[in-house]
Specification:
Number of strands: 7
Number of helices: 12
Shape: globular
Helix content: 40-55%
Radius of gyration: 20 Å
Distance between the termini: 32 Å
Largest sheet: 5 strands, mixed
Strand content: 5-15%
Mean pLDDT: 83
Order of helices and strands: HHHHHHHHEEEHEHEHEEH
Structural class: alpha/beta
Low-confidence stretches: 1-28, 160-166, 168-178
Length: 328
């Protein structure tokens, strides 16, 4: 089956790799097996796969867990569990993913294992998915008081589109250090804008230089869609999103496309060529930073009062949420 959320998990794995310290390759070759599985998951994000095929990946992770435990490769055990937790969360089993990560933390907390930093970051990510900013803060505090704490939180810039690399300045920092706190700070920002919170106001500019803001859509149910034409999941879902827009716009539904690419004219040309008629504007960089968006396609569904009622909605999930919001 299609999994529209795995693309965000792959992005999370990529960002985490950039933010975490590189580990020395292990002689046993388990690191290569981890990369093979992540590569397979990246491929699976771009098509339709059966439940059996997804279970086959989980079976490979389970076998890798057995092998790394037998070899006493505890960093490998942790790496395997983190990947498995990401897959579980992407498939809707947040409670199971959290239990897996908390179990790993309990088992290895006292050991000086570099990979354990990724467990703290993944727990922060799981809290952020639920809009639990207090939970993110708790795990950050726990990390800071642990022997695994790796120093200050670093500022970051960029990372808002495929051609805008994430830049994390690290002056006078040793090669072996990481910036796990920065990754958790991003998750804290994401938790602030989960369902039930007010979407931040903003001013964006369209291709004609006109100002666009949420005030222009007052009283409507709005899908704020952060996009760039090169993102596979966004593009794959575009025909369905066009259909939802056509079916419900007369009833008070609107889409605002906030383009995260560098050149809005490129986005505008793509929109015209593909039948997109909803308003399009450049995504303001301060808004991307506030929302913790790091170059990944995402969307927020807002009710008539500008409150977030859903995030990362695609396909039939989007249609159902729009119908419910319009009926209120």
């Amino acid at each position: 089956m299609k999994n529209p959320y795995w693309g965000r998990v792959v992005c999370a794995l990529t960002v985490l790799t950039m933010l975490a310290a590189p580990m020395i390759a292990r002689a046993q070759g388990y690191s290569a097996r981890h990369h093979e599985i992540v590569s397979q998951l990246q491929i699976m994000a771009q098509g339709t796969f059966t439940e059996a095929e997804w279970n086959s990946v989980l079976d490979r992770l389970d076998q890798l867990l057995v092998d790394t435990r037998a070899a006493g490769d505890w960093d490998g055990v942790i790496e395997t569990q983190v990947i498995r937790a990401k897959v579980m969360a992407a498939r809707g089993n947040h409670a199971g993913a959290m239990a897996l990560m908390q179990g790993a933390l309990k088992e290895f907390r006292a050991q000086p294992l570099p990979a354990l930093k990724k467990v703290y970051v993944e727990i922060a990510s799981l809290y952020a998915r639920e809009g639990d900013e207090a939970g993110v803060k708790r795990i950050m505090d726990e990390f800071k008081s642990s022997p695994h704490y790796d120093g200050r939180t670093y500022s970051f810039s960029g990372g808002f589109g495929p051609n805008d690399p994430l830049v994390v300045p690290r002056p006078t920092v040793a090669i072996g250090d990481s910036v796990s706190m920065t990754a958790m700070e991003v998750q804290r920002k994401r938790a602030q804008h989960a369902p039930g919170t007010a979407f931040p106001d903003f001013n964006a500019l369209d291709a004609a230089g006109r100002s666009v803001s949420l005030r222009d859509f007052q009283g409507k149910v709005v899908l704020v869609d952060f996009w760039v034409e090169g993102w596979f999941i966004w593009r794959r879902d575009l025909p369905y999103r066009l259909g939802v827009y056509d079916r419900h716009r007369r009833n008070g539904f609107e889409v605002l496309g906030l383009y995260i690419g560098r050149d809005l004219a490129t986005g505008q040309s793509f929109a015209q060529a593909n039948g997109i008629t909803w308003p399009i504007a450049s995504a303001p960089r301060p808004l991307l930073h506030t929302l913790g968006i790091l170059g990944d396609s995402t969307n927020f569904l807002l009710d008539r009062n500008g409150m977030v009622i859903g995030r990362d909605l695609y396909g039939s999930d989007l249609e159902a949420a729009v119908r419910q919001a319009l009926s209120r």
